[in-house]
From TrEMBL:
This is SDR family NAD(P)-dependent oxidoreductase. It comes from Nonomuraea montanisoli. Pfam families: adh_short. Belongs to the short-chain dehydrogenases/reductases (SDR) family. PROSITE patterns: ADH_SHORT (PS00061). It comes from the Bacteria. Transmembrane segments: none annotated. Keywords: Oxidoreductase. GO terms for molecular function: oxidoreductase activity.
Length: 209
């Protein structure tokens, strides 16, 4: 399969890329050095290059993230909203609009975002983050509707938080209760290919339960 992974240089992206490479698939990893996902023309040009080389994609795993929050609702910074809008919504818009036509051509494609429990259970100081993730989810559900009559599916994976080896090494005493290891996330993304697209399309898969 041809799998595009955005946010590929971080620990999460590396775990997902390793998982698919180990399965013998072609991973096209993107990070800011290669393509600024806030630059729509650059993302379109990137998709055009992938189309020229491969004709289609079988997976887009969108892993760009970020978190901002405040102590209380009243202290919410709308600058934080602008930052999260760019990171969590605008990059998703650019990537999904550019790659949807390529995903439609796959016999069994998947578009995946990783959302947070906070989107459905916002906290007082997390208004900007929760609202941005909820918007990203709604956007992804629209993509799912667009893919309804294809072999592909758009899926929302839901977690509380991620943990990786560097985080464990930095805090050996921490339990990271309820966190999802990036390797387990990668496994879950890979597992989406074992279930029928029609069953998964437009669903939220909670990895914390
Ligand atoms: N971490 C958590 O606890 C948690 C919780 C809930 C949901 N999630 C979601 O899980 C996914 C992975 O999380 P994460 O913490 O591993 O993500 P992350 O480290 O915040 O972001 C992943 C990568 O995205 C890249 N990126 C940011 N802006 C970019 C741009 N304009 N163009 C290209 N690349 C850009 C970053 O590159 P640079 O380093 O160069 O900026 C970074 O390596 C995200 O969608 C996140 O929202 C994470």
């Amino acid at each position: 399969m041809i799998i595009v992974v955005t946010g590929a240089a971080g620990p999460t992206g590396q775990a997902v890329a390793d998982h698919f490479r180990a399965g013998g698939h072609t991973v096209i990893g993107v990070d800011r050095d290669e393509v600024d996902l806030l630059d729509r023309e650059a993302v379109q040009a990137f998709a055009a290059r992938v189309e020229k080389e491969h004709g289609l994609v079988d997976g887009v795993v969108h892993l760009v993230g970020g978190w901002r929050g405040s102590k209380s609702f009243a202290e919410t910074s709308l600058d934080d909203w602008d930052t999260l809008h760019a990171l969590l919504i605008r990059t998703l818009q650019h990537v999904s609009l550019a790659f949807e036509p390529l995903l439609r051509r796959s016999a069994n494609g998947r578009f995946v975002i990783v959302s947070a429990q906070a989107a459905q259970r916002p906290t007082a100081g997390g208004a900007a983050y929760a609202a941005a993730k909820a918007a990203a989810e709604a956007w992804t559900l629209s993509l799912a509707d667009a893919l309804r009559d294809t072999g592909s599916a758009a899926v929302i994976l839901v977690i509380k938080a991620l943990v990786n080896d560097a985080m464990r090494a930095a805090k050996p005493e921490a339990r990271f209760a309820g966190f999802t290891d990036v390797r387990d996330l990668a496994q879950a993304v890979g597992g989406l290919y074992d279930r029928p697209a029609a069953e998964l399309n437009g669903t939220r898969q909670d990895l914390t339960t």
